[in-house]
Design goal:
Layout lengths: L16 H14 L3 H10 L1 H4 L2 H19 L1
Helix pairs in contact: 1-2
Length: 70
């Protein structure tokens, strides 16, 4: 029997326009809401990311972060 989807935690989330468009596109492709898309991504984080690329991508993001904030 599948787990019941209970959205018990609400968090304010700030996204870039690119991130928001990608989330909406993913949700539309999967025919789910953006909330459900985020739940899916975080519940399955380990299997939907390439762990060998994750560290590298995170380092690149962090290196560009200050410039992106300006």
């Amino acid at each position: 029997m599948p787990k019941r989807l209970r959205l018990t935690r609400r968090i304010p989330v700030a996204l870039t326009e690119d991130a928001w468009r990608r989330l909406k596109a993913f949700a539309a492709e999967a025919e789910i809401t953006t909330d459900e898309a985020l739940v899916f991504l975080f519940e399955n984080f380990g299997s939907v990311t390439r762990e060998d690329n994750l560290g590298h991508r995170l380092r690149l993001f962090k290196a560009e972060l200050e410039a992106r904030k300006a």
